[in-house]
Amino acid sequence: MIKETRAFQAETKELLNLMIHSIYTHKEIFLRELISNASDAIDKFKFKSLTETSLLKDKEELKIELITDEEKNLFIIKDNGIGMTLEEVSENIGTIAKSGSKAFLANLEEAKKTGDLNIIGQFGVGFYSAFMVAEKIVLETKSPYSDKGVKWTSTGDGTYDIEEIELKDRGTTITLYLKNEEEDKEFLQEYKINSLVKKYSDYVKYPIMYKGERVNSTNPIWKMDKNDVKEEDYNEFYKSTFHDWEDPMFHFNFKVQGNLEYNALIYVPKNPPYDLYTREYKRGLQLYTKNVFIMDQCEELIPQYFNFMKGLVDTDNLSLNISREILQKTNELKTISKNLEKKIISEFEKMMKNNKEQYIKFWEIFGKNIKFGIQESFGMNKDKLKNLLMFKSSLNDEYVTLKEYVDRMPEEQKEIYYIPGENIEITKTLPKVKNALDKNIEVLFLTEDIDEFALKTLMEFDGKHFKSINDASLESEEEKKEAEKLQEENKSLMEKMKSFLGEKIAEIKLNPSLGNNSVALSSKGEVSLEMEKVLSKIPGNEGVKAEKVLEINPNHPLFEKLKNGNEGEINDLTEVLYNEGLLMEGFSIENPVEFITKLNTLLSK
Hints:
41% of the residues lie in helices and 20% in strands. A 9-stranded mixed beta sheet has the order 1-6-5-4-7-3-2-8-9, covered by helices on one side. Strands 16-15-18-17-20-19 form a 6-stranded mixed beta sheet, sandwiched between helices. Strands 10-11-14-12-13 form a 5-stranded mixed beta sheet, with helices on both faces. A hairpin with a 4-residue loop joins strand 5 (149-154) and strand 6. Helix 10 (331-354) packs across helix 11 and helix 20 packs antiparallel against helix 21. It is elongated, with a radius of gyration of 32 Å. ATP binds at residues 33, 37, 79, 84, 92, 98-100, 122-127, 172, 324.
């Protein structure tokens, strides 16, 4: 039989050092982590047993046991879950979770400085928290798919022993040899264990047994009367079930009755999961039927744009022996999903109306998901989600909904005006925006890359189409006629400038409403200036260009220089003005040195 001494993975050694030497607070969380791991192991076994019925013995009770021995200074936790093979122990206990190792290392140093334990739960390494209280850990485990058991031993010194052993029963037993410090011995006391289970793991769905008695609740929190459950109870259930170290932002509790009945408990985290925007991230809610766990991440229950949500659904309408393949085609599940989606959206709309401050907190963290939801699948979900949109407004620099904007639009205004730009204060200084603000026209500020794409997909709201201030015509009829007259009078000059710039621009026109600015850049067509910038960052889209329009202020002194200059001066000034327009809109210029040289030449005359 195999018996070896192996070295920990480098980042695991770092974590062990952090646990043993750097963190002195929150030691009690080790129990929550070990109980959560045991619960997960039973979940996995229970799911396997649905299709492999021979795994589960008749009348076998799936449970977690806590055992203490004060004389020997031992704390033991046992479960009869799925257990592990030798390969699984090596992979799961010898290394940090694969998907999180890089992110873990990136955050490890900061965790050392701040003592921030959030990193432990975030990266699935809670097992190692036991080293905060233990000087030695022995893990014995047996998988139903292996004839042999496995024994894993470590003192946290950078190595571990692993060997095959004879074990009769499936499951995992972890023995902690506690340190001799008084604060660690406290975890052997009955009152302490009971209080910690109540605090962190009361709603773990399997019995937690200690001294022959169940010490956690028997009634699932999601089936209890809402009036009987405190907010802190919901929070602790969330943290112990979904391995978060912070309370959730808020939760929704649904009890639906009728032809298809279900209970749902949905949480919105306070912070997005570290891998939310990666390909590795898996969305989904836990699925139960008749209080029996079916699967951990049921993607069918939650749309992609709500992928950040955690929670569960429990229904009596599904068969206990359902398989994953059948599950994906189950009409009942699709009905629950659609109903749940409507209820969540409805709750957000109520929150927006009754508790806007809380909705804004949600929006600032997860609003991007809603905007992606509008854009995805060619706008299939836009009508469902459009009322959830919010943007900062020029009216008071506060968030407004599209409905609030439309409700206070002047009768003569036919379009919803917006302007893209990451920095609102800088955006306000752009010529077109400043002109709009001077005329008391309300403008929505789009500060994220996805914003304009979402509005382009939405197309209109309450019959009002969206229009970028850059592309809007805000002049009076008199101003328009004056601009047309000037355009005609300077037609020859405009043609020379257009000929010099060539395909860089689609059009040159005069705009007397640019205030003190000599030039502005706008676009025409479907691709805006901001969309060009965003798309250019995506490989394969570098060729997507906006049809740029160079707008010249005929009231600016530089226009007189254009009219009176020779061909060389006109060309140099045209290029300088074009580059100024690019810079104001956040584009890079092709040749900065040449631009500065020509600018200095013009300034010196």
